[in-house]
Amino acid sequence: MDHCETQKIETERLILRPFQADDAEDVFALLSAQTVHCFQDMKPAEADDVRKEIGRLHERPEENYFAVCLKESGKVIGELFTGAEEDGDTASPCWMLHPDYQGKGYAFEAVHAYFDYLFYEKKMRRLYAYTEEDNKPSRKLCERLGMRQEGMFLEFISFVNDPDGTPLYENTVQYAILKKEWERQSGSEGKY
Hints:
By secondary structure, this protein is an alpha+beta fold.
């Protein structure tokens, strides 16, 4: 199955689907509003840049990119993605939600469905995620999803610079969950 053409996941309030050309304005707003340092280099200059990137996503079916859309209106409020998996059964999912929609349970709903998709349809054995130590909402989401903290990397990476141009190195926390842990906590073997 070519994910970019056919994959759609529905939750109670959301639809996770491939990006479409007419999502450009919503995605431009999403990327422009990001405050988390690791997404700073994704800020586009204009909506046309977003349209070009959406076109490129359809050329890379090995990567899983989903628009997180409100079921009622179709508005794109976030994105979920993983790159091509190096080990075949291990993936590092990433998520991003527009700040206006944070704190309403949308991230948990979307990422929970995405984990089901990765474990049951894509046959992943292990998922892991990185987040900055001071990104408390993302850390809380990892823990709510049942992920374990596996490590803390001190001064691991720099996404931004101090005003004088010196790289600002951030501590990074790694979380992970195995498929068997996911099944144990959810009490099922998923819908896929």
